[in-house]
């Protein structure tokens, strides 16, 4: 049965997001209130037997969301594969069987944007501080062969981040990338833990300016030795046919907003780099 919508909360959202997002909020509202309109991405598992799987998806009308070669190097293969459908269809979720790997996973395709924005290099270390339920950690493993992936599922506090930082230092592990979906003070802790030149990706699944742009702006204003990294334009261009991006001025990240026939999101992503 469909869950009831709290009219008081909806009224608050209407007031807040109409001001922050303008007309884009009204179409996003319609999508979010209608689960039958939601689309589902099919993330392929590169570690499993996928014989005939792509052909089956193609026959159902699915297409690959991502290019299979890197736009800057046509010979560089992109192992991450996610298939989407233009209609709100959903294939069955595969059950777990001992000794057998699932061929695919269903997810909101916009959740791949934080992973794609990492621009991961082979052999790097990654710490995911918002690994619940673990979709982004899963997508990282489908993207490239990294040296170390640490995924944190427990309650995240500044003390816990500092504890992680302490142990990483004594284990002589230099982190290249952090994933965070937490408050400003923990973003600062993540920046302190990542090595100089490393990247912290701040990502949320909310459309709230207070939890998105305002957090990044506060970090940039209070933390020295950090700069904002724009998401690569070729990445935005390659996804624009299927994702609807919000219009921010000035831009301190990218926000995917669900719209009719493009129901992916919400998903906010911003990249910060530690300079020294």
TrEMBL record:
SAM-dependent MTase RsmB/NOP-type domain segment(s): 187-275
Active site annotation, chain numbering: 205 (nucleophile)
TM region positions: 176-194
Record's protein name: NOP2/Sun RNA methyltransferase 3
GO molecular function terms attached to this record: RNA binding; RNA methyltransferase activity
Manganese among keywords: no
Entry similarity comment: Belongs to the class I-like SAM-binding methyltransferase superfamily. RsmB/NOP family.
Keyword Transmembrane helix: yes
UniProt keyword annotations, A-Z: Membrane, Methyltransferase, RNA-binding, S-adenosyl-L-methionine, Transferase, Transmembrane, Transmembrane helix
Cellular component GO terms, alphabetical: mitochondrial large ribosomal subunit
InterPro entries xref list: MeTrfase_RsmB-F_NOP2_cat, MeTrfase_RsmB-F_NOP2_dom, RCMT, SAM-dependent_MTases_sf
Gene Ontology BP annotations: rRNA methylation
Pfam families: Methyltr_RsmB-F
Organism: Sinocyclocheilus grahami
């Amino acid at each position: 049965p469909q869950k009831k919508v709290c009219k008081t909360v909806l009224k608050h959202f209407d007031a807040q997001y109409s001001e922050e997002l303008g007309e884009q909020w009204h179409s996003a509202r319609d999508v979010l209130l209608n689960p039958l309109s939601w689309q589902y991405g099919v993330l392929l598992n590169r570690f499993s037997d996928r014989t005939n799987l792509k052909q089956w998806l193609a026959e159902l009308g699915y297409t690959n969301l991502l290019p299979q070669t890197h736009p800057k190097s046509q010979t560089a293969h992109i192992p991450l594969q996610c298939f989407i459908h233009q209609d709100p269809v959903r294939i069955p979720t595969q059950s777990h069987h001992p000794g057998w790997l699932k061929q695919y996973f269903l997810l909101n395709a916009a959740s791949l944007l934080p992973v794609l924005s990492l621009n991961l290099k082979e052999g790097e270390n990654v710490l995911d501080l918002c690994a619940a339920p673990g979709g982004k950690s899963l997508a990282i493993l489908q993207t490239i062969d990294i040296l170390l992936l640490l995924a944190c599922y427990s309650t995240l506090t500044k003390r816990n981040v500092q504890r992680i930082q302490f142990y990483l230092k004594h284990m002589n592990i230099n982190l290249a990338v952090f994933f965070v979906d937490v408050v400003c003070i923990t973003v600062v802790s993540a920046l302190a833990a990542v090595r100089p030149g490393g990247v912290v990706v701040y990502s949320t699944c909310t459309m709230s300016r207070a939890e998105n742009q305002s957090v990044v702006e506060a970090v940039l204003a209070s933390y020295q030795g950090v700069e904002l990294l724009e998401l690569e334009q070729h990445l935005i261009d390659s996804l624009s046919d299927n994702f609807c991006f919000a219009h921010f001025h000035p831009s301190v990240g990218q926000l995917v907003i669900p719209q009719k026939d493009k129901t992916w999101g919400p998903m906010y992503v911003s990249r910060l780099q530690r300079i020294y």
